[in-house]
């Protein structure tokens, strides 16, 4: 009886302490002047459940409509929509740490560096087309329904494997996620997205030895990377041969002792695979689905590709200057950002002044959600929710000066690859892969969405995954190859 009474008292006191602590921090909070829903002033639990339910984008959009472009959405977060402040905010968090470990490999991700691996990309792109044709185009398989979303996913993982390790990961050949690596990666992204709203929970869940087995980890992907690295290090391969990313990462270890160790090399490899595959796949799916859903856009894109002299597969040199294709790329990245939550940073010394004069104190976490920025009607027009590549082109009666001003404003609010000094290091990697893949698919095949079946299933996690783009494919006679 005494033990029960003691436990009840202890729990009660614990609750009281937590409540008093929440009230105290609310009273001294540096963002007391920022409006927002009442629960957000006291706890991040609301934030966690909102993300768990996949409603965070709609919630943030609703709060901005109600409170304006700066709202106390969560207990320590300020979400903004003004592109003029992006460069300041996104150049701050842990930039010294970031620079130290990324500097040794930074040149690899320059456009020139990425194009040095283009032949590996072409190898996988040819394999994608061969798999599509043997399974859905040729012979008795002609006219079979193809869920192109799955095949884009397999391709993006395999091309990352080819460019990183010098060998694909076997998804295209198998035609499925045979070992569950893609599924595990997605579940990890969801788990870390959820606990990231209240990071201390991870110590009690995923990092708790008693229950860690219940939660997904990147162990499978890490194990794969370790295995490939050990194989390479034990091979008789000459060290002056630099054919893929792994060769260059091993060289970086030699050139940067004390900074790059085997631990960093494995981290680089994991980053290549996990950060590159899903993100590029999502944008490719978005573009394919939206182009197929808009006959006028489909026709204009096809006409531009037909007028160009394209190889099979298309090379970056051939397609990077095609204006309408470029507009389609930009619009795909704008309308469906890969990230579904705020990108958080810490307000630097000197504070952050909002457009209405309010000042956010140094040290406060602030965030911008790409979905709100990319759908801002003040920047992109009243049709900001529509897929319209023409918005990136000069209008018929628009002066060059007016166009450049409008274009700059759109670019200033573009968070596709982040902003400031922390722009995604894989930007060129993704853009080269994206433009080559889209150009090759639409130039080589007639594609149409299959009517009467489930299409386009989004999942609003940390990455905004999409599934189900069911199409019928036919090889075009004018596509070459």
UniProtKB/TrEMBL annotation:
* Source organism superkingdom: Eukaryota
- Please tell me where heme binds in this chain: 424
Q: Does the keyword Oxidoreductase apply?
A: yes
Query: Which cofactor does the UniProt annotation name?
Result: heme
Q: Check the record and name the InterPro entries matching this protein.
A: Cyt_P450, Cyt_P450_CS, Cyt_P450_E_grp-IV, Cyt_P450_sf, Cytochrome_P450_monoxygenase
For this UniProt record, the keywords arranged alphabetically read as follows: Heme, Iron, Metal-binding, Monooxygenase, Oxidoreductase
User: Where does the chain cross the membrane?
Assistant: none
Alphabetical list of Pfam families matching this protein:
p450 (PF00067)
Q: Does the keyword Heme apply?
A: yes
Spell out the CDD domains in the cross-references: CYP57A1-like (cd11060)
Task: Return one GO MF term.
Answer: monooxygenase activity
State the family it belongs to: Belongs to the cytochrome P450 family.
Q: Which PANTHER family match?
A: CYTOCHROME P450 (PTHR24305), P450, PUTATIVE (EUROFUNG)-RELATED (PTHR24305:SF180)
Tell me what this protein is called.
Cytochrome P450
């Amino acid at each position: 009886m005494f033990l029960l009474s003691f436990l009840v008292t202890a729990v009660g006191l614990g609750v009281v302490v937590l409540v008093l602590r929440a009230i105290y921090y609310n009273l001294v909070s540096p963002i007391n002047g920022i409006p927002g829903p009442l629960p957000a002033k006291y706890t991040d639990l609301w934030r966690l459940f909102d993300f768990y339910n996949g409603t965070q984008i709609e919630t943030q959009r609703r709060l901005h409509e109600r409170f304006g472009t700066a709202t106390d959405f969560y207990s320590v977060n300020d979400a903004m929509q003004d592109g003029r402040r992006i460069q300041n905010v996104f150049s701050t968090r842990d930039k010294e740490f970031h620079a130290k470990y990324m500097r040794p490999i930074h040149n690899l991700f320059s456009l020139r560096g990425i194009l040095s691996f283009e032949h590996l990309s072409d190898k996988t792109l040819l394999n994608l087309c061969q798999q599509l044709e043997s399974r859905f185009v040729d012979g008795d398989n002609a006219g079979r329904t193809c869920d192109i979303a799955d095949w884009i996913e397999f391709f993006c993982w395999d091309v990352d494997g080819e460019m990183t390790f010098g060998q694909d990961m076997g998804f295209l050949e198998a035609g499925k996620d045979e070992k569950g690596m893609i599924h595990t990666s997605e579940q990890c992204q969801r788990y870390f997205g959820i606990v990231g709203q209240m990071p201390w929970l991870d110590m009690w869940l995923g990092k708790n030895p008693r229950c860690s087995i219940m939660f997904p980890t990147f162990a499978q992907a890490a194990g794969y990377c370790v295995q490939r690295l050990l194989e390479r290090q034990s091979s008789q391969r000459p060290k002056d041969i630099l054919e893929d990313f792994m060769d260059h990462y091993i060289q970086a270890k030699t050139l940067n002792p004390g900074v790059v160790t085997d631990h960093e090399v494995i981290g680089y490899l994991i980053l290549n695979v996990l950060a590159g595959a899903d993100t590029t796949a999502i944008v490719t799916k978005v573009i394919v689905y939206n182009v197929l859903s808009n006959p006028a856009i489909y026709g204009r894109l096809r006409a531009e590709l037909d007028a160009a002299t394209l190889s099979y597969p298309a090379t970056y040199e051939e397609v990077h200057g095609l204006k309408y294709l470029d507009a389609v790329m930009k619009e795909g990245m704008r309308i469906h950002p890969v990230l579904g939550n705020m990108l958080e940073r810490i307000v630097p010394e000197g504070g952050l002044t909002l457009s209405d004069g309010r000042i956010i104190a140094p040290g406060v976490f602030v965030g911008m959600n790409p979905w709100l920025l990319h759908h801002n009607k003040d920047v992109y027009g009243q049709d900001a929710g529509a897929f319209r590549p023409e918005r990136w082109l000069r209008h018929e009666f628009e002066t060059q000066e007016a166009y450049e001003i409008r274009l700059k404003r759109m670019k200033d609010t573009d968070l596709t690859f982040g902003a400031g000094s922390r722009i995604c290091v894989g930007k060129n990697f993704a853009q080269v892969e994206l433009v080559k893949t889209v150009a090759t698919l639409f130039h080589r095949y007639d594609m149409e969405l299959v009517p009467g079946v489930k299409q386009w299933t989004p999942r609003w996690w940390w990455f905004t995954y999409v599934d189900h783009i069911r199409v019928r494919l036919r090889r075009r006679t004018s596509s070459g190859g």
